[in-house]
Amino acid sequence: MSDDIHISVRTLVEHVFRSGSIDSRFRSQATLLDGTRIHQKIQKTYQEGDQKEVYLRAEIAYDGLTFLIDGRCDGLLFRDGRVMVDEIKSFSQPLEQIEGEGYLVHWAQAKFYAYMYAKANALTEILVQLTYVHVETEAKRYYQKNCTLSELETFVFEVIEGYAPYAKLQHEHRLERNESCKELTFPFKTYREGQRKLAGAVYKTIVDKKNLFAKAPTGIGKTISTLFPAVKAIGEGPLNRVFYLTAKTITRTTAEEAFSRMRTGGLCMNTVTITAKDKVCFKEETNCQKDYCEFADGYYDRVNDAILDILSNENGMTREVIEAYARKHTVCPFEFSLDLAYAVDAIICDYNYIFDPRVSLKRLFEEQKKSTVLLVDEAHNLVDRGREMFSSSLNKEMFLQLKKDFKGVNKVIYGAASKLNSSFISLKKANADKNEFILEQLDEAFLEQLFQFVEDTEQQLLTNSSQSLVEPYFMVNNFLKISELLDEHYVIYAEKNKNDLVLKLFCIDPSKLLKQMGKGYRSKVFFSATLSPLPYYQDILGGNEEDYALSIPSPFSIEQVDVFIKPLSTRYRDREQTKDSMVTMIKSLIKNRPGNYLIFFPSYQYLLSVYEQFKLSDEETQTIIQSTGMTEAEREAFLAAFMPDQKETLLGFAVLGGIFSEGVDLIGDRLNGVVVVGVGLPQLCFERNLIKDHFYKKDKNGFDYAYVYPGMNKVLQAGGRLIRSEMDHGAIILVDDRFLQMQYQMLLPPEWRDYTII
């Protein structure tokens, strides 16, 4: 790696000159599009011979480093034998609010371009112009300066001097990082069976710029088997950054531990974990306004020092580490973690920072994506999460409430909310005989009303931040954004709920949009113990023909697990009749094989009904029960009850697909058996039936796509809690007569197929 630092003009000046507070009170959502539109409009007024979007670059040596700085200036104007650099900025606030002679950061950008052009064309002086344009009215304000080359040169060196400490720190870190990645050895004495195969496949995927779908069994150490080859690829050069994406906090911890283990082996690598804003916020309520929050007030004046400080002293930036430095420098911990994400080597975060169009890390440029790998853990969860991210809904109740709130307070908002409330009423009346109904398309007049609502609330929010308006504003805005994505992968439907009516843009098949949001990254690796059947997941997660696929058999011996099938019907209609048999089966199990058991039920109602019946006939056996909305402390207490070497039997009653059926490790003697009640099918409902019909039309098995595969995934996840290491032994009891049917048998892992019917 050479001593070159490649950076764009804009990134450089924004780093050095950013100042002020975080203010999430309100920003118009249209600004980016408006900015582009306004730039083009101004550029059309240029005279013949003027140039627009001119690429400029400069090489500047400073303090042992060479800075390669480049960018595109908006305009080069030629007037009366003189050259002028024009920098256009769109502005949503009234132009009278522009302070003094324009903003320092904008002048810095324009002066950089002026310096580059003057230097390259041997000019001793050059004109610099800032053009501010108001988004709504298109009113303009111009500021001009005449600059000499030597003035510009002095200025440019001052800016680089401001950036150099950070650049030097990053540069030295990268050299050390790459060396340590090259020398790193696998952080365990030996590879577990299947581990080397997975690690090799991940490395090859990154080198070949491909995507990989990997079904890798529980217990082989998937986290280290995907992270280690990614780290090695950084050392070899094709990679510069890793995203480890997860759906659950517990798997984030596993990734942090894997990095920490590699650091013990000599790895020098910066990682940051992004935690949701409402979880890390230091204040009573999450309200990012400078008058309310000292961590938002003046955030940009302090954040550069905070970043330098944490990067100079820490490698693993977990939630606790970020919170400590955020308090030390009085900066918002959430925004701080996002700013760090652009500076570090690996980011551990939720799926939505990459895939959700509303949340994703926008400042990751295409160039950076090309040297970034996405490691998607527990990828089976991305199917429903994808549907959620790309869907949007609005309900009548919200507009009725706004109508009440703003009556006699604000005529404009009252009017806009009334119109929308009336549209919902008309839609309801037109479909009076149905509880749910599909719409072929969105009504043009209704869309107009939504656009009008956004415009009216925007005006109101710019002048007066009314809290009750913020959420409806964002919901409508999001609905309009999603409405632009509507195609054959969507269904528009409405559902009545007492007096309310919900209108939903439902993304049935997220494959196309997941593919789009993941575009540009060097490689993507989707992995999970239950990525089965693989062709289904490849299809629905946006895979291609040329993607790699890998299925690794379980490393554990068939002798470690005894599988039993109890052919009782657990269908909704039969649950009352089979309840006694269920209780008898549980009692017989613990009599013959005492120990610690987790029993998973398809619903909370069903769980309570069997639990109560069991308690009536057996008051002695120790039981614990999952309750709804458990706090983290309650969850930990539930798991802590599973002690090794217990003399007494313990039964934990839990919900299939709930918090205890995924990502939970009860190693060794802490868990002796898992009982799975039912085949996990989601409840029959309108939305699932829409999925079923959609895929049948595509000549795929719609029932499998909507019900069987998601259901069996929960069964496999729950059963996967049992055998976590070579030392574990235990029993899996599958309770349902459907487990004996061919379509379900085929979805059982090979090591479960040697079963005994009881």
UniProtKB/TrEMBL annotation:
Keywords: 4Fe-4S, ATP-binding, DNA damage, DNA repair, DNA-binding, Helicase, Hydrolase, Iron, Iron-sulfur, Isomerase, Metal-binding, Nucleotide-binding. One of its GO terms (biological process) is DNA repair. SMART domains: DEXDc2, HELICc2. It comes from the Bacteria. InterPro entries: ATP-dep_Helicase_C (IPR006555), DinG/Rad3-like (IPR045028), Helic_SF1/SF2_ATP-bd_DinG/Rad3 (IPR014013), Helicase-like_DEXD_c2 (IPR006554), P-loop_NTPase (IPR027417), PDDEXK-like_dom_sf (IPR011604), RAD3-like_helicase_DEAD (IPR010614), XPD_DNA_FeS (IPR042493). Pfam families: DEAD_2, Helicase_C_2. Residues 181-464 form the Helicase ATP-binding domain. GO terms for molecular function: 4 iron, 4 sulfur cluster binding; 5'-3' DNA helicase activity; ATP binding; DNA binding; hydrolase activity, acting on acid anhydrides, in phosphorus-containing anhydrides; metal ion binding. PANTHER family: DNA REPAIR DEAD HELICASE RAD3/XP-D SUBFAMILY MEMBER, REGULATOR OF TELOMERE ELONGATION HELICASE 1. Belongs to the helicase family. DinG subfamily. This is DEAD_2 domain-containing protein. It comes from Neobacillus vireti LMG 21834.
